[in-house]
Amino acid sequence: MSTFIKSVKNTVKHWYIPAIIGALFIILGIYVFTVPESTYKTLATLFSLSFLISGVLETYFSLRNKNELEGWGRYLASGIFNLIIGIILISKSGMAAAILPFFIGFTLLFRSFQGIGFAMDLKNRGELHWGNLVIASILGVIFSFLLIVNPLFTGMYLVAFTALAFIFTGVKAVVLSFQLRKLKKIPKKINAELRQKIKALKEEYYEEMDENEV
Asked: Quick check: 144 and 112 in contact, CB under 8 A?
């Protein structure tokens, strides 16, 4: 309820940022497919840069939309988390290939669960295509988990699961971005009188929530 009220009252800023992050992850995933297992460890620099870039973009996106999106804090948490992982990977450039998949797996797993959370927000506000985001996020969860249980997989299996985890995490971000684009268009279709009604409804909603808590 609160997500809908907030999203129709304000326009989403920079909706395309998640799409940029998604495209970055998809390109990286496709590239990983071309890398032999023997050079897997050398990809640490690319992984760290991708997490640093996505972390900066998500942090910026969350702060710009703190008054527009009810779940902006999740974007901020994801951005900070990615920044931390990126810094760790850069500072540990000599990290063994046996440890690297755990960092990548947990990072992508976090982003995939985040996508499921956003899908539920979209479902609650009546979006018809929220299921697409759930499917992409679940696939991201599956392949991220397979990375975390890395000792069971070696060689090209490790490369393939890393690539697929990045690709489906990227697809999730692109799908989310276009859902946010739809949110951006909603306020333009609402006249001033309806905006005032929405504001009053929002105030009434939060007052009732406060009374229930007491």
From this structure: yes
pLDDT for res 7: 46
For residue 103, give every residue at least 6 positions away whose Cβ sits within 8 Å of its Cβ, in sequence order, or none: 47, 85, 88, 89, 95
Give the pair of three-digit tokens for residue 37.
């297992």
- CA 59 vs. chain centroid, Å, equals 11
Whether pTM > 0.90 for this model: the answer is no
What is d(CA 123, CA 92) in angstroms, rounded to the nearest whole number?
Answer: 40
Q: Tell me what pLDDT residue 26 has.
A: 92
Distance CA 52, CA 162 (A): 18
Identify the CA nearest to 167 among candidates 146, 143, 184.
143
Each domain of the chain, given as residue ranges in start order, spans: 2-213
124 vs 114: CA distance, rounded Å: 16
Closest CA relative to residue 72, chosen from 13, 131, 22: 13
pLDDT along the chain (214 residues), means of 10: 45 80 90 74 79 89 78 81 84 66 81 81 69 84 80 64 84 82 61 62 68 61
